[in-house]
Design brief:
This protein is an all-beta fold. It is 0% helix and 52% strand.
Length: 112
């Protein structure tokens, strides 16, 4: 059974940091590019970042460039999203994705 399980969300203050993790199972993880996306309250899904199957190439949305970094550990079948300099507008549910499959999401709230 293909499964993606996100973790690491929570409450952070503006300017703070969080690291999200997404543990994968049920498929050959190192064959696939992985992505993170988010959905803010009342808004549509926004793509955040992607990483190639072997980690050799990454892409990041302009809205988070310079603050967020995607990485992966193929031995652990896990993809990460390091989020620094968080802003209130980063508040959203964050999802990891492999083509056709989404995790359940993890809530990130940035507030004082």
């Amino acid at each position: 059974q293909v499964q993606l399980v996100e973790s690491g969300g929570g409450l952070a203050q503006p300017g703070g940091s969080l690291r999200l993790s997404c543990a994968a199972s049920g498929f050959t993880f190192n064959n696939y590019s992985m992505s993170w996306a988010r959905q803010a309250p009342g808004k549509g899904l926004e793509w955040v970042s992607g990483i190639y199957s072997d980690g050799s190439d990454t892409n990041i949305a302009d809205s988070v460039k310079g603050r967020f970094t995607i990485s992966r550990d193929n031995a652990k079948k896990t993809v990460y999203l390091q989020m620094n300099s968080l802003k209130p507008e980063d508040t959203a549910i964050y999802y990891c994705n492999v083509p056709g499959i989404w995790g359940q999401g993890t809530q990130v709230t940035v507030s004082t």
